[in-house]
Specification:
mainly alpha; 0% strand
């Protein structure tokens, strides 16, 4: 009796289930606006005018101090002169006795007074001449600084206009940047939703893969059992044929 071989059952491979997620990338750029600031230089001419003014004031102060010193001496002489006059008017006898001496003293004091007044006039004239030259020079410096100030003010006005234009441009760019940021936030939210969907799909794929692996294990067990049955059936048929 011819032995028939039973064809074994071979497990077929299932199609692989896989999916390659694609995640879009979005790039974003930031634009930065710069604004220049300009510094006014109107304080420079003020400082130079103050220096010239204080120099003139110092020279005038020196002349005034000298004038005050001489005026003090003159006042002292006048007081002494008045004192002498009071003494002369106090008693007729004392005036008669010391009239000649008083006259000499008054003459001397008058000469000293004239001398002091002459010195005062000289000092005042010298101080006036010095201050006059300094005043003329300071006036020229002030005129020069005033012209420079006008030039600087024109430059500052131009820079202020440029700054106003830059500020307007900056505000416009700030609005654009805000809109871009809002768009990026929306794209980020969309990307987060896509990532959540991809994560859910990956979990499903993982679950399906685990199910397939379990089915494969079960199928291998069935195939092993079928193969064992075939082996036992073949052995039984062999024993039957030999008998």
């Amino acid at each position: 009796m011819e032995k028939k071989r039973i064809k074994p059952i071979v497990a077929e491979r299932d199609d692989m289930i896989g999916r390659s997620p694609s995640t879009p990338r979005s790039d974003g750029g930031d634009n930065n606006g710069s604004s220049g600031q300009t510094t006014g230089m109107s304080g420079l001419w003020k400082f130079m005018v103050l220096v010239a003014f204080f120099g003139l004031g110092g020279a005038a102060g020196l002349g005034w101090m000298q004038y005050q010193d001489l005026a003090t001496k003159h006042s002292s002489l006048l007081q002494r002169f008045e004192l002498l006059e009071s003494r002369l008017s106090s008693t007729d006898e004392s005036v008669t006795q010391s009239g000649a001496a008083m006259q000499v003293t008054i003459s001397k004091q008058g000469d000293q007074l004239k001398k002091h007044w002459s010195e005062i006039k000289k000092l005042w004239g010298v101080t006036n001449d010095i201050n006059k030259g300094k005043i003329e020079k300071n006036q020229k410096d002030i005129s020069f600084l005033a012209s420079k100030r006008n030039t600087l003010e024109e430059s500052v006005n131009k820079d202020s206009k440029k700054l106003a234009t830059l500020s307007a441009n900056y505000l416009g760019m700030a609005a654009d940047v805000e809109a871009l940021a809002e768009s990026m936030r929306n794209q980020s939210d969309g990307l987060n939703r896509i990532n959540s969907s991809v994560a859910l799909i990956n979990q499903r794929i993982k679950n399906n893969a685990e199910g397939i692996e379990s089915m494969e294990a079960f199928r291998r067990q069935i195939n092993q059992k079928i193969y064992a049955l075939e082996q036992r059936s073949g052995a039984t048929l062999t024993q039957t044929g030999s008998n």
